[in-house]
Amino acid sequence: MAPTDTVAVSIVKNGGTWEIDVTDGSAWWYKVWISGWSIPGASAEWIVEDPTVGGQLPALAWFTPVTFDQGTLDGASPGLVPSEGGQMYSSASTATATPSNPDPVDADGFTVVRGPVQPPPPVLS
């Protein structure tokens, strides 16, 4: 994968197995099956976050805006609402990543930016 690539993700529960597919156009594909994962399946999350490296939490890398759009839940819009979004904060209580409100037309997407200023929602695609 490369910066600015568009990625599609599908997460489906089939009996006791979760199937997760990630595709990047025709250039890249990843599939994983997870069995015995006992969760209620009542929610899903997309997170842009700071990883732990060598047991330490480094500064969050600078990133360009990341847009999640055309999300579905059982084949329909998930009906995202602003109260479901959340900012990420550093240990200094400074917002380091901020989501937009959901897109206003179909409530199936949002954008995350580096910093404390809320970005505009994605445009209908």
Task: Give a quick precis of the structure.
The chain has 125 residues and is mostly beta strands. The protein is 0% helix and 30% strand.
Explain what you see:
It is a single chain. This protein is mainly beta and 125 residues long. The protein has 2 domains: 1-42, no CATH class; 48-125, no CATH class. Helices cover 0% and strands 30% of the residues. The two termini are 22 Å apart.
Terminal CA distance: 22 Å
Mean pLDDT: 79
Q: Please identify the structural class as seen in this structure.
A: mainly beta
N-to-C series of helices and strands? EEEEEEE
Cross-sheet strand order for the largest sheet: 4-7-6-5
Which properties best describe this structure?
125 residues; mainly beta; 2 domains; four-stranded antiparallel sheet; three-stranded antiparallel sheet
What is the topology?
Elements: E1 8-14, E2 17-24, E3 28-35, E4 66-68, E5 88-89, E6 95-99, E7 110-114
Antiparallel strand pairs: 1-2, 2-3, 4-7, 5-6, 6-7
